[in-house]
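Entry 14. Ran structure prediction on the chain below.
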Amino acid sequence: MTEWVTAYIGLGSNLGDRARTIREALTRLGGSGSIEVTRVSDLQETAPLTGPREQGAGGRGKTPAPAAQPNYLNGVAEIRTMLAPQELLERFKATEAALGRGPHAKWTARTIDLDLLLYGERIIRETGLVVPHPDIHLRSFVLDGLCQLNPHLVHPLLREPASELQRRLAGGSFVLDPETPQLVSVAGIIGVGKTTLARKLGEVLGAPVLFEPYDTNPFLPEVYAGKSELALDSQLYFLVHRARQIGWDALARGRVAVTDYVFDQEMIYARRLLNPTQLELHEKIYQPFAERVTTPKVVVYLEDSPASCLQRIHRRSRPYEQEIALTFLEAMDSDYRQMFAGWKASPVIRVPASRLTGYADAVVEHLVLQVRAYTAVGS
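Output, C-alpha cells:
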C-alpha cells in the first residue's frame, strides 16, 4: 500500500530494563522508513493479569489475581505507517525477537510485547490478526494510554469513544472467562425501568432472566405501609432469594443469565430501611451469603432523575409503592451513585433511561453489542 495510516500499538515489558527496552523497540520501529512514531503515552506500572482458569470459580473476586511474575510497564504508541496490517505485525514480531522475546505464550513474562490495537478504522479478522485488538475495552492500562493520546478516538467495532470505555472500567482490568457463569446485571433505583430492560436483554440474548421477588415478598407491603418492625424480615427475604438465584452453583457455566438487580444493592436498602439493631444483625447474616454469589461480568446501570422514576412508580400502580416519597428516591439515587463511583467488581455500562424510550431497534442493538463485549460468549 502507498498511503499513510494512523495506528496504535500496545507496549508492554516486565523483564530487564523495561523502560529502556520499550524505547529501543520504538526506535527500531521508527527507523525503518515505513513507520513513523508520532506520539507515546506515559508508561504505567501494572500488575500482571492471569489466564481465566487461574482466577477461581467465578465468585466475588474483584480483579484477576496477580501471577507469579514481575509487574509490567505498559503504554501506547501512536504511529503512522505505510505497511499493511500483516506486514506491520511481522515487523512487530521481528522487533520483539531482536529484543530477546521468546515464543509467544500468553500469560507469561516477556522482555517486550507489541500489540496492534487499532489500524485506522479497519476491522480485521484474519488468521493470527484481530483488529481492533479484542481486549482493548477490558484493559485500563490500554485505554489510559489511548485516552492520553486521543480521548475522542472511537472504537471501530463497539462504536464508543475510548473515554467512555475507560470510564466503564474505573481503573480495573478484566479477563473473559468462558468457564464461569456470564451474569449480566441491570441496576438502578426503584422505578427506573430495570425489569423492562432486563426482560429485553434476556429476549435478545436468548438468556434466562432472574427477577427480584417484589410481588411475592409478604413483608414488603407492610414495610412500605410503615411497619418498620418487619423491615428486617423483608430484607432477609430478598437476601435469601437473591443468594439462591445467583449462587455459585445456581448458574450454568459459560451461559448468559440476566438479573434486574445487583446483589450489592442489598446493603443500600438495609442501611436505609433498618434500625441500628436490625442492621447489626443483618450485616452478620449478609456476609456469608455475599461470599457465595456470582459476580456479574458486566453491570448495566440505568440512570434517571428520581422525579421521573416516581412518575413511573405512580403509573404502574403497585399499591404498596404508592407511598414512596421523592426524598426516599433521592436518597437511594445518591447511594447508587456512590456505590458505582467506587465499583471495581466488573465493567459498568451507564445508560440514561431516556435513551431507551420506545426501545428502538438500533438502540437495543447497540446496547446488546456493548453487553456481549464483556461476556465470554461473543456475538
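Residues 54-67 have pLDDT under 50 and may be disordered. Will compare against last week's run tomorrow.
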